[in-house]
Specification:
By secondary structure, the protein is α+β, with helices and mostly antiparallel strands. The protein folds into 2 domains: 205 residues, 3-Layer(aba) Sandwich (Rossmann fold), CATH 3.40.50; 144 residues, OB fold (Dihydrolipoamide Acetyltransferase, E2P). Helices cover 23% and strands 35% of the residues. The chain is built from 9 helices and 22 strands. The radius of gyration is 26 Å and the shape is elongated.
Length: 399
């Protein structure tokens, strides 16, 4: 079982009387890659700065290994930070940039005449050299010791910043959107590098980003935030496949979000017809939000479709086409590798595991196309029920 390292207990933060964090309760495990994900202004960077000791919460507690750390300054916490701007020293070479924190020395507390006194503990020069070279090898910069930082690419400068933060052997590394300044190709390369470094070092990474792809690619755990509150916590697979509300569904990937009614366990109605799904535990006839991911929709000939619509726009995305289909006023995004020309009438088929059900929330009606469709699909022989799926009940019970 993973060991808990940090816990935020009912943390609130306000600036000039305006709430930025609203009763945050969250814990971080040892050796975990956890990402705080959300739009600008959601409170993710404020949360990171509270953990790092740069801010003190208005109320609540910050615990490290069960010890309250609210008023402990950053340099006395076993935490280091990599910022969006790397803040490297241009007059120092790569080796000296990484060695900087080691040369300053570690602050330790010792008792002198019954009082706690701080002192700097210096490291031997040979140990500094050994640790710097070891760290440069971990970040794939072996042989770059004597390079000036101005001679490095953006990705290499970022590796230097990471090496400088890790060389002090913190328990936790905080990363505040460190890939934002890199181009797309470098960002993708560095996603893999960061995950490799985290696994090799075996320490906790707490990463802040608004980029869903970064979060999904690197994280063990994702914390989705909005308006100073945690909306959902889970693995990348859980967050993507089972969003808790319309905000999460819309923020993590593309989604078609529509109004529905849950008739009973495993049966949902939308577009005035009933569909089998894998969700349960809702009240009979409870209004719900229905999420259908664009890649889960199967396009079929009109006569074989459960629903039929007209293609209104097609955009080539490289590996697939983004196809907009109008279902009598309700527009869906469908991602398919097959080209369907504008104006073509198509049918679609939805399997039970393509349909995800969410409770209504404050975000209902804010995302997706909530067209108030009420017209029956008269052209379908049986508009009241999808054919029984023999495996549906079993899979639902397993969940």
């Amino acid at each position: 079982m993973a060991k808990e390292l940090i816990r935020l207990v009912d943390c609130c933060m306000a600036f000039d009387g305006e709430a930025v964090l609203d009763h945050i309760n969250l814990y971080f495990n040892d050796s975990e890659f956890l990402t705080l994900l959300g739009p600008s202004g959601c409170g993710k960077t404020t949360t990171l700065r509270i953990i790092g000791g740069f801010l003190t919460p208005t109320s609540g507690e910050v615990l490290f290994d069960g010890v309250r750390m609210n008023d402990v300054p950053p340099h006395l916490r076993q935490v280091n930070t990599v910022f969006q701007r790397y803040a490297l020293f241009p007059h120092l070479n790569v080796f000296e940039n990484v060695a900087f924190g080691l040369r300053i020395g570690k602050t330790v507390m010792e008792e002198v005449k019954g009082k706690q006194v701080r002192r700097k503990e210096k490291l031997p020069e040979e140990e500094i050299r050994q640790r710097v070279l070891e760290m440069l090898e971990i970040v794939s910069l072996k042989g770059f010791e004597n390079r000036r930082v101005s001679e490095l690419s953006g990705g290499q400068q970022q590796r230097v910043a990471i090496a400088r933060a890790l060389v002090n052997r913190p328990k936790v590394l905080l990363l505040d959107e460190p890939l934002a300044a890199l181009d797309l190709r470098l960002r993708k390369d560095m996603q893999s590098e960061l995950k490799r470094i985290q696994q090799q070092m075996g320490i906790t990474f707490i990463y802040v980003t608004h980029d869903q792809e970064e979060a999904l690619a690197m994280s063990d755990t994702i914390v989705v935030m909005d308006q100073g509150k945690i909306q959902q916590i889970g693995t990348p697979e859980d967050i993507y496949n089972e969003p808790k509300n319309a905000f999460v569904a819309d923020f993590i990937g593309e989604s078609n979000i529509l109004d529905g009614v849950m008739h009973e366990d495993y049966v949902v109605e939308f577009f005035n017809r009933k569909f089998k799904c894998l969700d349960k535990g809702f009240q009979p006839m409870e209004p719900v939000d229905v999420v259908i991911r664009p890649e889960d929709v199967d396009i079929v000939p009109v006569e074989k479709g459960q629903l039929r619509g007209t293609v209104t726009a097609v955009t080539f995305k490289g590996v697939h086409y983004d196809t907009i289909v109008d279902f009598k006023g309700f527009k869906w995004l469908i991602q398919t590798t097959d080209y369907h020309e504008v104006g073509k009438e198509i049918g679609i088929v939805l399997n039970p595991d393509d349909i995800h059900i969410m409770h209504k929330s404050q975000y209902s009606g804010m995302f997706g196309d909530y067209s108030s469709y009420s017209e029956e699909y008269d052209e379908i022989n049986d508009p009241t029920y999808v054919e029984e799926d023999e495996d549906t009940e079993g899979r639902g019970d397993e969940e």
